[in-house]
Amino acid sequence: MSVSHDSRKGDKIYVIExxxxxxxxxxxxxxxxxxxxxxxxxxSVEYIDWYDKYVGDNLYKNIQYKHHIxxxxxxxxxxxxxxxxxxxxxxxxxKNSDA
Length: 99
Hints:
Blueprint: H1 3-6, E1 12-15, E2 19-22, E3 37-39, E4 44-55, E5 58-66, E6 73-77, E7 81-83, H2 84-96
Antiparallel strand pairs: 1-4, 1-7, 2-3, 4-5, 5-6
């Protein structure tokens, strides 16, 4: 299932791969991972919309979302997210499997 195709504004979507949602750089322009905003596997955010982003010749489908704690509107590549239905299916699978 595709988050961009199957989600509507306000839907809860889940992170399936952790990532830095908002990097922080100090006054000397050094990256500070401890001060950066991170989303981890299992975190949920509110779906807002999707948009295309070009990086060189490559096209990426990005998801615009509302951060669950800060309320900020941020964006990230669609492959970091799944719908609530898919998330619940993954939970059931791993709870009931011998993996």
